[in-house]
């Protein structure tokens, strides 16, 4: 079920991409459409199929982040290097071809984290929550 949830998360990210704010906009507006579509996808998918594996969909994307750090050309100092890679992946301040990491690592990572969190909420809701029956 883990791979199926990963596919759902990627599809939800692709669905949310056309609604992304343009580069240079508020970072919240940049990631919000992808987060919303992943939250909706998790809520629907986790009610229809097994919840197992849904909370781990962020791990493959998290493994790509250190890979991107090691693959990105080194800057003069380590601080500049970390800032450059951060802006490439998670900032709305990337340029033309610099947005590749943003598109292929940052957006799917944020979406998959939202997918995992939404699956935990669905699991919590299905188990009854702290006071679901009014007692």
Topology of this structure?
Elements: H1 2-16, H2 27-48, H3 59-71, H4 78-90, H5 100-126
Describe the protein's architecture and organization.
With 135 residues, this protein is mainly alpha-helical. The chain has one domain (2-126). Helix content is 67%, strand content 0%. It contains five helices and no strands. The protein has helices spanning 2-16, 27-48, 59-71, 78-90, 100-126. The longest helix has 27 residues, at 100-126. The protein is elongated, with a radius of gyration of 17 Å.
Name the features.
67% helix; mainly alpha; 135 residues; 5 helices; elongated
Structure described in brief:
The chain is mainly alpha-helical and 135 residues long. Helices cover 67% and strands 0% of the residues. The longest helix is centred in the last third of the chain and has 27 residues, at 100-126.
* Low-confidence runs of at least 5 consecutive residues: none
Helix content: 55-70%
How much strand? under 5%
Q: What's the rounded overall pLDDT mean?
A: 81
Radius of gyration: 17 Å
* Domain module count: 1
Distance between the termini: 34 Å
What structural category arises from helix and sheet content? mainly alpha
The coarse overall form would be elongated
Instruction: Tell me the series of helices and strands, N- to C-terminal.
Output: HHHHH
Number of separate strands: 0
Taking the sheet with the most strands, its summary is:
none
């Amino acid at each position: 079920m883990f791979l199926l949830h990963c596919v759902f998360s990627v599809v939800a990210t692709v669905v949310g991409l056309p609604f992304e704010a343009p580069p240079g906009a508020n970072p919240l507006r940049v990631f919000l459409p992808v987060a919303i579509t992943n939250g909706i996808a998790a809520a629907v998918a986790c009610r229809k199929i097994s919840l197992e594996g849904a909370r781990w969909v962020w791990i493959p994307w998290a493994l790509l982040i250190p890979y991107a750090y090691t693959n990105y050309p080194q800057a003069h100092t380590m601080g500049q290097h970390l800032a450059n890679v951060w802006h490439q992946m998670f900032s709305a301040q990337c340029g033309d071809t610099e947005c590749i990491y943003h598109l292929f690592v940052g957006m799917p990572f944020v979406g998959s984290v939202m997918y995992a969190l939404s699956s935990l909420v669905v699991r919590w809701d299905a188990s009854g929550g702290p006071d679901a029956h009014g007692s």
